[in-house]
């Protein structure tokens, strides 16, 4: 009887032990992996090592220059000694992560007969035009024609003429007249060619300004701060809106051929800027739109004046009434043409020194421009109101084009002394200005895209709870590839391709960074995590743990008994 | 003697004036921002939280009065006060006792209303991670030169802020959101004002640069409401915002009051709680930051000094017309020619027909001649009677052709040596 009872108890105990052991086995082998898999967030693989490589940005910009010696600058024996090509490197370290290298590849040759004929024109402008007909330089390269000191192309005090395309005329200095060797000639030319390059291609200040996203440099002076704040940041598209403000429709019936004017004057510029960005244009007329400021009557010129302090308050009341295209989030450039009402005509803008501004227009950085167009001269005081007025679009568009150039970052920086600039061509943009813009935009895009990608990688690394979908990983990879290609093209000097790749890189990186699925809402402080898991797991785990402990202690006891029995 | 003193006084006045003008122009550029944005959020709903909506709408009014347009304001309100069935004066929200000031009006533009005011939408607006279909008015389209004002009001606690009685945002999430804004350079300077209980806990965790924060009460203190209106039956405003608005009433777009004056708003005697502020992350000295840098929108303005002379363009346009006219004439004549050929049972091989425009200036490449619906190919050089003619008549291709011919003969000659 007793043996049966003890056997029963033993079998019961063994059943109990088996049960505890199997539950523990299931929990550990099936439960824990299942819980791990179902609570982990999906994170696609990101090329982190490549991103970290990119974070350390070493940019190299290459520019090609062709130096053509015209007749009278080098003798034929010297011509043979002139090297065919010369490469110059300039290194700049901006900060610990960013280094820049500028490489100038200079090729020397003499002018062909046709070029000599072209240079035989009376003025520099005509010489420039005929030189253009001979050949076209590819994007990003320059041709500098060195003309003898006796040449009459340039006026007395000017040494360099910068043409409308990618050519410049450089007059050799007086000290190079007699008894100079090839080395002296080249040494004399080198700094001057570099100066021309800084104006026509890129200068260190421009490139570092383009890197402002990455490196917040302490501003040099007021002009540089103003310059950096004025132009819009690089964006794949812009919207331009032309608005005609008519506060007095009872007196003036205004007609403006905006479509024709845009086609003739603005569209060529925008077509030329097509590699840089897309533009969408629209126009509107606003009636009864007043300026928010009362102009003062100036009896000395019997006209109404707006001084520069009050200009700042003009824009806000008007801006509330300007619409914008709700579909896109591209930056908007507003150009307003204000025709003052009959009681406040004529209206002139005065600058700080109380002088009348010839263009009668002002612009606001990163916003747009306003021009005041006086129509009181178009009709006699006793005319029957309302009068029909046709606005002279050439004059208006001249001002708007100038403002558009400033706002887009085509810097008309003051030329160094001795430089004569050709007026920009029919499109409103010289080829070398376009090149300059493309250089700074490429660098800006590369810098911005790199910063975006690295900060995204950092963010995703820091916050372990964000889900990284496959499409984000794809965008990041494509951004990294485009960035690497853009840097390679910049190094090779292919400006067009570099800009294209940098645009692709920036679009991919922006799309990845601003993807709506990357929202970090999953902030759980650790004590909250414990508070969630403990009520679920503790009641289940405690009996199992206790029974496991009992099994272990019993096994140990049995072993001790066995030991004791042996002894 | 008197004239001398008068003269000297006058001259000093003039010089001081001119310095003022220069200073004004200089100050425009010292803050480094070109546009202003405001994000105003009221995180409560239900009738008894009337004062929070009135707070937000009053700040909205001041910000609009000082110049920030609706397109640059993101207003998030539950917007259930004006048309609430418990409102004795429907379509109004008052901020003053005795119904002095209706802040609702008829031109309030609420961007996120009702149940759209959630923590997720708020964070999406701040970080810019909105779905592509979001309209412009619901986005914060700031750039690296924008000064942003963020105003939050509602019920809060130590380290969190309650959104619509159902969820909460913690100070860590807010600090992370600001850091993401900084990484993407979405602001130049940011002013953060919060009017809730224990508001100072919300700015404790900030770590991004160029942030300035103000709160209505310290940790452990409650922010109290200001005045009940017996006709409406609820408290109309919170104390901190009430005194803040009194301060803002004296500010106009050209005012020179700075942030240090803002810190003095609502001392403990008036507010019962102790307002706090945090400026250690702000790079400029708060005394040099104007109130209008954040609350208003004073635009920087530059005079346009240059214009482009476009009268030359008209000449070019005329030239272009000439080319077009010529092309039209040519097309007409060619069509007549084709008709003659067809009527005389002769065939004109259009594939072998090419055209070339001689001229010195580079004409528009986009010229087409179409005969019988077939576009005629434009060439730039062509061999005719043994001479290679090119469109610029500079004879380069002909010389090249001759050189090639001669090179062949010279090669043969050299073999005979």
Automatic annotation (TrEMBL), chain A:
Pathway as given in its UniProt record: Glycolipid biosynthesis; glycosylphosphatidylinositol-anchor biosynthesis
Gene Ontology process terms (BP): attachment of GPI anchor to protein; GPI anchor biosynthetic process
Signal sequence range: none
Pfam families according to UniProt: PIG-S
Species of the source: Sander lucioperca
GO CC, one annotated term: GPI-anchor transamidase complex
Residues that span the membrane, as ranges: 18-36, 530-552
Encoding gene (name): pigs
Listed name of the protein: Phosphatidylinositol glycan anchor biosynthesis, class S
Location of this chain's protein in the cell: Endoplasmic reticulum membrane
Membrane topology term: Multi-pass membrane protein
Keywords: Endoplasmic reticulum, Glycoprotein, GPI-anchor biosynthesis, Membrane, Transmembrane, Transmembrane helix
Highest rank taxon of the organism: Eukaryota
Family: Belongs to the PIGS family.
Automatic annotation (TrEMBL), chain B:
Active-site residues, record numbering mapped to chain: 155, 197
Gene, per the UniProt record: pigk
Keywords, ordered alphabetically: GPI-anchor biosynthesis, Signal
Pathway annotation: Glycolipid biosynthesis; glycosylphosphatidylinositol-anchor biosynthesis
Name the record gives this protein: GPI-anchor transamidase
InterPro entries, per database record: GPI_transamidase, Peptidase_C13
Quaternary structure and interacting proteins, as annotated: Heteropentamer. Part of the GPI-anchor transamidase complex, consisting of PIGK, PIGT, PIGS, PIGU and GAA1. Interacts with GPAA1. Interacts with PIGT; this interaction, via a disulfide link, stabilizes the expression of GAA1 and PIGK and links them to PIGS.
GO biological process: attachment of GPI anchor to protein; clustering of voltage-gated sodium channels; detection of mechanical stimulus involved in sensory perception of touch; GPI anchor biosynthetic process; protein localization to cell surface; proteolysis
Extent of the signal sequence: 1-18
Family, as annotated: Belongs to the peptidase C13 family.
UniProt xrefs under PANTHER family: GPI-ANCHOR TRANSAMIDASE
GO molecular function, one term: GPI-anchor transamidase activity
Annotated Pfam families: Peptidase_C13 (PF01650)
A GO CC term attached to the entry: GPI-anchor transamidase complex
């Amino acid at each position: 009887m007793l043996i049966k009872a003890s056997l029963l108890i033993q079998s019961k105990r063994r059943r109990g032990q088996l049960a505890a052991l199997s539950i523990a086995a299931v929990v550990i082998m099936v439960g824990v992996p299942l819980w791990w898999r179902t609570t982990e967030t999906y994170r696609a693989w990101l090329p982190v090592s490549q991103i970290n490589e990119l974070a350390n940005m070493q940019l190299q910009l290459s520019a090609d220059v062709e130096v053509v010696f015209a007749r009278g600058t080098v003798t034929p024996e010297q011509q043979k000694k002139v090297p065919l090509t010369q490469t110059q490197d300039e290194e700049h370290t901006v900060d610990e992560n960013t280094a820049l290298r500028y490489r100038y590849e200079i090729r020397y040759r003499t002018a062909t007969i046709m070029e000599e004929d072209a240079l035989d024109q009376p003025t520099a402008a005509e010489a420039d035009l005929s030189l253009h007909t001979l050949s076209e330089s590819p994007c990003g390269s320059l041709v500098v024609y060195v003309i003898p000191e006796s040449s009459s192309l340039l006026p007395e005090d000017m040494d360099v003429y910068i043409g409308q395309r990618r050519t410049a005329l450089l007059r050799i200095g007086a000290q190079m007249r007699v008894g100079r060797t090839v080395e002296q000639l080249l040494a004399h030319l080198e700094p001057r060619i570099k100066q021309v390059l800084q104006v026509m291609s890129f200068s260190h200040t421009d490139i570092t300004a383009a890197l402002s996203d990455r490196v917040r440099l302490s501003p040099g002076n007021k002009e540089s701060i103003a310059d950096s704040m004025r132009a819009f940041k690089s964006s794949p598209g812009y919207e331009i809106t032309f608005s005609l403000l008519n506060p007095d429709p009872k007196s003036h019936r205004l007609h403006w051929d905006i479509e024709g004017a845009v086609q003739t004057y603005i569209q060529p510029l925008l077509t030329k800027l097509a590699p840089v960005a897309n533009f969408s244009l629209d126009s509107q007329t606003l009636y009864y739109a007043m300026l928010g400021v009362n102009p003062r009557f100036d009896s000395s010129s019997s006209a109404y004046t707006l001084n520069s302090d009050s200009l700042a308050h003009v824009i806000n009341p008007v801006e509330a009434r300007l619409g914008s295209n709700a579909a896109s989030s591209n930056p908007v450039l507003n150009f307003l043409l204000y025709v003052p009402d009959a009681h406040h005509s004529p209206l002139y803008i005065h600058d700080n020194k109380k002088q009348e501004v010839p263009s009668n227009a002002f612009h606001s950085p990163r916003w747009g421009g306003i021009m005041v167009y006086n129509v009181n001269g178009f009709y006699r005081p006793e005319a029957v109101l309302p009068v029909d007025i046709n606005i002279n679009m050439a004059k208006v568009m001249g001002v708007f084009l100038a403002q558009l150039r400033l706002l887009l970052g085509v810097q008309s920086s003051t030329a160094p002394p001795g430089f004569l600039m050709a007026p920009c061509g029919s499109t409103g943009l010289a080829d070398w200005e376009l090149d300059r813009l493309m250089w700074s935009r490429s660098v800006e895009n590369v810098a911005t895209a790199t910063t975006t990608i690295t900060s995204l990688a950092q963010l995703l690394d820091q916050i372990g709870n964000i889900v990284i979908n496959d499409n984000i990983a794809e965008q990041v990879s494509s951004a990294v590839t485009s960035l690497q290609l853009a840097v390679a093209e910049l190094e090779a000097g292919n400006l067009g391709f570099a800009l294209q790749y940098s645009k692709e890189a920036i679009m991919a990186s922006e799309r990845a960074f601003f993807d709506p699925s990357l929202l970090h809402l999953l902030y759980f402080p650790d004590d909250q995590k414990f508070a969630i898991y403990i009520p679920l797991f503790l009641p289940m785990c405690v009996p199992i743990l206790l029974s496991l402990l009992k099994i272990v202690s019993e096994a140990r006891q049995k072993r001790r008994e066995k030991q004791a029995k042996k002894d | 003697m008197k004239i001398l003193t008068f003269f000297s006084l006058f001259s000093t006045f003039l010089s001081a004036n001119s310095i003022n003008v220069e200073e004004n122009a200089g100050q425009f550029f010292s803050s480094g921002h070109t546009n202003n944005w405001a994000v105003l959020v009221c995180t409560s709903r239900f009738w008894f939280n009337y004062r929070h909506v009135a707070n937000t709408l009053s700040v909205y009014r001041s910000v609009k009065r000082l110049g920030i347009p609706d397109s640059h304001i993101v207003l998030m309100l539950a917007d259930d006060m004006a048309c609430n069935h418990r409102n004795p004066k429907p379509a109004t929200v008052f901020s003053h006792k005795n119904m002095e000031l209706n802040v609702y009006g008829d031109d309030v533009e609420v961007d996120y209303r009702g149940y759209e005011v959630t923590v997720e939408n708020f964070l999406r607006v701040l970080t810019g991670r909105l779905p592509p279909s979001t309209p412009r008015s619901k986005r914060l389209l700031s750039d690296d030169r924008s000064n942003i004002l963020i105003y939050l009001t509602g019920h809060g606690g130590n380290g969190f802020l309650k959104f619509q009685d159902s969820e909460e945002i913690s100070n860590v999430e807010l600090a992370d959101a600001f850091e993401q804004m900084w990484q993407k350079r979405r602001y130049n300077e940011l002013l953060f004002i919060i009017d809730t209980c224990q508001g100072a806990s919300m700015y404790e965790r900030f770590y991004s640069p160029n942030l300035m924060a103000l709160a209505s009460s310290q940790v452990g203190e409650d922010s109290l409401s200001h005045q009940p209106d017996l006709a409406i039956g609820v408290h109309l405003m919170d104390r901190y915002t009430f005194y803040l608005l009194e301060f803002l009433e004296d500010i106009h777009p050209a005012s020179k009051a700075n942030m240090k004056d803002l810190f003095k708003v609502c001392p403990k005697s008036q507010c019962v709680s102790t307002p706090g502020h945090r400026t250690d992350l702000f790079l400029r000295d708060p005394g040099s930051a104007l109130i209008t840098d954040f609350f208003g929108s004073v635009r920087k303005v530059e005079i346009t000094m240059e214009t482009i002379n476009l009268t030359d363009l008209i000449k070019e346009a005329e030239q272009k017309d000439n080319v077009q006219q010529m092309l039209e004439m040519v097309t007409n004549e060619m069509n007549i020619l084709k008709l003659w050929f067809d009527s005389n049972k002769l065939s004109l091989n259009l594939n072998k027909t090419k055209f070339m425009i001689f001229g010195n200036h580079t004409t528009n490449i986009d010229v087409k001649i179409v005969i019988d619906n077939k576009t005629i190919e434009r060439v730039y050089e062509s061999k005719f009677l043994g001479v290679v003619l090119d469109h610029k008549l500079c004879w380069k291709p002909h010389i090249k052709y001759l050189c090639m011919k001669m090179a062949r003969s010279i090669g043969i000659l050299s073999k005979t040596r």
